[in-house]
Amino acid sequence: MSGVEIGILAVGVLLLLIVIGMPIGVAMLAVSFGGVSLIRNEGVAFRMAGSVARDSLQEYLFAVVPLFVLMGLLVTVSGVGKDTFDVFQSLLRRVRAGLGMATVGANAVFASITGISIASASVFSRVAVPEMVRHGYQKGFATGVVAGSSVLGMLIPPSLLMIVYAVQAEESVGRMFLAGVGPGILLAFLFALTIYLLARFRPQTVFDRAEDHSGPAPGLGETLAKAVPIVGLMGLVLGGLYGGFLNPTEAGAAGAFGALVIAILRRSLGQGRLWQILVETGQITVSVLFLVMAASFFSRMLAMSGLPAALGETLLSGPIGPWGFLIIYLLVVILLGCIIDSISIMLILLPIAIPVAQAAGFDMIWFGVMTVVAVEIGLLTPPFGLSVFTIKSAMNDPALPVGTIFKGTLPFVLAMVAALVVLAAFPEIATWLARL
User: Fold this and answer.
1) SS3 361
2) Cα dihedral sign for 352, 354, 357, 358?
3) Whole-angstrom Cα distance, residue 238 to residue 245?
């Protein structure tokens, strides 16, 4: 077999192993080792596995992963998510469908201090959904709002997916973070617009009864008190990062320390909670870094096979062209999102897609943003829909079928597709800030 044929076989075997249930990292390592053994020999495969383990995990950059994960978990346990929702609820309580928009706004802000979509889905399913239902919203729509807006956690910086892409594409993490700001604001706006238009023209899909604005309005002092920790943490992390005072790893350390201070002041770490958070941080970090190591091996195997170069030449020189490749790539990403988690999709596809995208002349920062948006659609689509199942688990409501939540997410899936179209037409939305 030629190298290209071995590369194609390796990709097919990898997808088969994933479908039958093998852990993705283990499957990537096994396929990569087998591929290199066929292309060269087992001795080369053993040496490459050792060099990958050494080279891919010794970078200083990877220290940012546990720091941002720790910050996100500390923020979640300290109740900052509920306070963020309360602030936006206070600001938008008199606006039509304002509670739904408040959920989007709160999720956008919460995303900027956690970077983990699942954390947002878990927090706001407990905080926002009961409040929306109490004010007359349909439970399915309320959960759809939470699931939809939770994807902002992987787009608005800091973002774990942006870090993964930056490593794979050898781009600056700081620039990738900056590139997520414009698209994140665009997506939050499209979500809020979707909620408003549905409430205005199809209220039966949003409300069970007339929207209820009753209840005492929170005082200005109470609202400001809840806003201070949020604004302070955002200023510490994003101000230091965008102001050039901190690199991404230092910003992660500063954010984790700030989140720890908030959690201590709020007495949220009793009964061994801090130890549980540290253990969970370690578990998440190890799983991510193991996948990164496996993906590095997979990437080197594919490069050795010549598959990415051959694929690029075939796609770009034929009738499909660069934009045809982009459409096919985004469709594959979205379809894989139905069965595989976000990070795994990127680690499987990027070693193949990045060389083709570079040959097509695409801006790699813009390509990364398009990838992240498409990957995040998979969090909302059946049958995998990780955000949907997170909400179902957090709600623990037997009267709320998973299908009802998926139905509620549909308008937001369409809004995300619209965001992809806008970003394709106006790539400057993603690149202008990153290129400053």
Assistant:
1) coil
2) negative
3) 10
Q: Are 237 and 113 in contact (CB under 8 A)?
A: yes
Sequence-ordered alpha helix ranges (H) in 273-341: 273-305, 307-317, 321-336
Boundaries of domain holding 174:
3-431
Distance, in Å, from the CA atom of 76 to the CA atom of 273, rounded to the nearest integer, reads: 12
Per-residue pLDDT tens for 6-60?
888 988 888 888 778 788 788 889 999 999 998 888 888 888 888 887 776 676 6
Burial 281-298 (b: 16+ CB within 10 A, else e): beebbeebbbbbbbbbbb
CA within 13 Å, CB half, 396: 3
Report the distance separating Cα 208 and Cα 135, nearest Å: 9
Distance of CA 333 to CAs 283, 382, 393, Å? Answer: 26, 14, 25
Is 436 within a domain?
Answer: no
Angle at the Cα of 270 (from 264 to 274), degrees rounded to 5?
A: 70
Residue 5 burial class via C-beta count within 10 angstroms: exposed 0-12, middle 13-18, buried 19 and up: middle
Q: How far is CA 290 from the centre of its chain?
A: 18
Distance CA(132)–CA(411), nearest Å, equals: 17
Question: Is the distance from CB of 40 to CB of 304 less than 8 angstroms?
Answer: yes
**Structure-block tokens of residue 22:** 């093998």
Residue that the structure tokens 């660069």 belong to: 322
Q: Encode 14-53 in three state secondary structure.
A: HHHHHHCCCCHHHHHHHHHHHHHHHHCCHHHHHHHHHHHH
Cβ atoms of 161 and 117 closer than 8 Å: no
Question: Are 373 and 423 a contacting pair, CB within 8 Å?
Answer: yes
Number of domains present in the structure of the chain: 1
Mean pLDDT over 325-329 rounds to 90
Residue 376, classified by CB atoms within 10 Å of its CB into exposed (0-12), middle (13-18) or buried (19+), is buried
Asked if the structure places residue 36 within a domain, the reply is yes
Angle at 251 between CA 248 and CA 255, to 5 degrees: 140
- For residue 335, being part of any structural domain is answered with yes
241-260: pLDDT as tens digits? 777 788 878 888 888 898 89
Residue whose structure tokens are 């973070």: 177
Say how far apart CA 173 and CA 193 lie, in whole Å: 30
